[in-house]
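User: ok so my PI wants both of these folded by tonight, can you help

Assistant: No problem, let's get them done. Here's the first:
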Amino acid sequence: MTDRTTFVHISDTHIAPVGQQAYDTDTAQNLRNVAQRVREMALDPACFVLTGDLSNHGEPESYELLAQIIDEEFRPFGVPVLLGLGNHDSRLPFRRIFLGQSDADDESIQHYYSTTVRGITFIMLDSLVPGRVHGFLGDEQLRWLDQQLSEGAAGGQIVGLHHPSLPRGVPRPDDYLLEDREAFGAVLARHDVMAVLCGHAHVPTFGLFGGTLHVAAPATAYQLDPSIRDGGRGLDGVGFNLCTVRDGRLMVNPVALPTMQRELYRHHKTFTAMPSADPAVEPVTAGAML
């Protein structure tokens, strides 16, 4: 019988505090609906991987609600829930609520780690730059990644982070990608990596990057129209990726929950430069909804 390991890739939950809604949709209920859909499927998930934008604005109350949803909806599966951070997140309240680090006081310290689940090593990176829409890993994290990947894993290695290195849809002025993606790709190319899992795109996106499969998950908060060339158009929509490792290969099946696909917002992007503390990172642009 073929060995098979299945896990669920979720991204961009954008949880708001109780009593608030993000993007005119109930993002908390959307995430609960994903858990219900997984329960209805003929699955034995090995873990859940959440690749950032856990919160909509990084409020402590939003992480408290997310922790409650995870405890009520996902912990009963009895498997690990791996959490990564995105540009909408805030490290300090995340650390205090999820990691129990009540004395955490430095927002700039990145949260990255690796863990092995059923022989597969998941390496979770932190591409969050506070106050910025683009992502950045930095030399220290890339050196750590290089070292981790050099150790290998019997069941394969999967890298998770929030920001993609590949654009979504048609050509656009900016897709708010990982700024140091060239250096990231060079690290990937030196190792045997099964896949890179990311989010941020709010639409399922697949391609090759650094010699490996690059997968952006559909968001649970809402979907973006991949045909828009300038600005953005948000649509009511909920999805996740069902990921299955078979014979050393990763197969990915996007799963969409039924929605009306109503338009939530539409905007045109305007560029407004903001100062950057890191000269390696380009200035952020206003108008980004990701």
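One down. Here's the second:
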Amino acid sequence: MCAKPAVLTSCRTTLTETMRILIAGATGVLGRATLPHLHRHELAGLTRSEEKLESVRELGAQPFLCDVYDYEALLRVAELFRPRIVANFLTALSSGSAEANSRVRREGGANLLNAAEAAGARRLVVESVAFPLEGDGAAAVDELEQSARGFLGESVILRFGRLWGPGTYYGAPPRPPTIHIDRAATTGARLLVQATPGTHLVTEQEG
């Protein structure tokens, strides 16, 4: 029986096999926190910054220098690594640009989904949000989720509350829904591998 995480959902029987997992957004807030909790698996992490390659390696993943907007390069990485699971933790929050964040959800998300299918991945996991957005940001999240549901294999959408804690935008809990980054990482890592296909809330309030 699965231990109850900070989320209202069910999860699969624990998988004991080691899996190949490709994580896009490996050096983002959620990626950095989650990777160490997946140490028993064979990991690859994408970054478009040469300076962050060593950081990906230190987090326990094989680093790949790859811009998700370059589909041919992304496809080469996916076909080389042959992941069973592809995780989309892509954001552009560090840029401070809402337009950049919407673009990475649309274009980056679409490229990653197509590369995952082409490489024969069985599962696509997508980071989404559990709180309402407005305007184009809301439209981009909706498009991201809709496209994920069309993935040929298993699709898992993780709707996270507002992340808070070390390394995030918030040092103290903001308005709900929220989730501390440490709890988001442990719960996200478990659901990434074990969750039943579908949409799952990852918030302290739902826990």
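The two ends are 17 Å apart (CA to CA). Residues 1-15 have pLDDT under 50 and may be disordered. Good luck tonight!
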